[in-house]
Amino acid sequence: MNTPTLPDGQMWRLSVAPMIDVTDRHSRFFHRLLAPRALLFTEMITTGALIHGDQARHLDFDPAEHPVALQLGGSDPQALAASARLGEQWGYDEINLNCGCPSERVQKGAFGACLMAEPHLVADCVKAMQDAVSVPVTVKHRLGLDYSESYDFVRDFVGILFEAGCRVFTVHARNAVLKGLSPKDNREIPPLRYDAARQLKADFPQARFVLNGGIVQADQAVELERQFDGVMLGRAAWHTPGVLTDIHRRLWPSEAIPDEDSVIERMQAYAAAQVRAGVPLRIVVKSLLGWPHGKKGARQWRRTLTDPALLAGNDAGLLAQAWQELKRQNGA
Description:
By secondary structure, this protein is α/β, with parallel strands linked by helices. It is 46% helix and 14% strand. Helix 4 (77-90) links the parallel strand 4 and strand 5 (94-99). The radius of gyration is 20 Å and the shape is globular.
């Protein structure tokens, strides 16, 4: 097994959470323009999909996306090791194991948040993955299951994984309620418990802890980043992606970020290339819908980029047209 060490923390200061049907490679390309140093995650990909499915479809990404992490869903150590090996071969910078998703689909597959009840199995998975790759193997988890708020439960979970060699933990600071709540409800109803996450950081000073859950504003993110080893944004990166740039400027004030016109130019060029490769324009532009949040014309921007008739032409120039209209409405 690779000797566990505490990796350099810069990569984890700001990250965008793995989100099914959201963080595809087109979304990640866009987010990279907004936050040049953020760590980006794939959607959760199951071991079965990688081992038996179309590997290129699941794993291909643009080199501009680095640093980028592959999140895996599964509970079989050997299947996870094989999938992690594929991820490293494809060029991913980190392999992350999902121990936090509460959906019925992952419960039927006995992985995701269910794994928190089986920490020794998770430890075996982590060891197998670490043996297979040289990049960091990390874990994303919740604070507990259902309605028990026992700190001992999550402390023991993290402790067992720490002994197995895991050194980076992303803590979604809520419980996962496995029965009766939808994935959406699980992001909102179980109370946030940042104090429990802080206690984990205090109890395991030789590990890194990235905080996830309820982070939506730049001031809040910057303050929490001072208390943890990093912050991870979820739905805020989808609904108000401009917040990524706001946070990035505060964390790395000397780092150059493309201006808005440049973002559009690069997204238009990227969209045109994707369309030529057979990707529908609607798939490429969906992550941009919330970008002008709070500006005049934001509603028209969304209407334009979701209009089936306009998208049917698969003309990437539609993005520039929508942008020019938005600028006109804002007096630019």
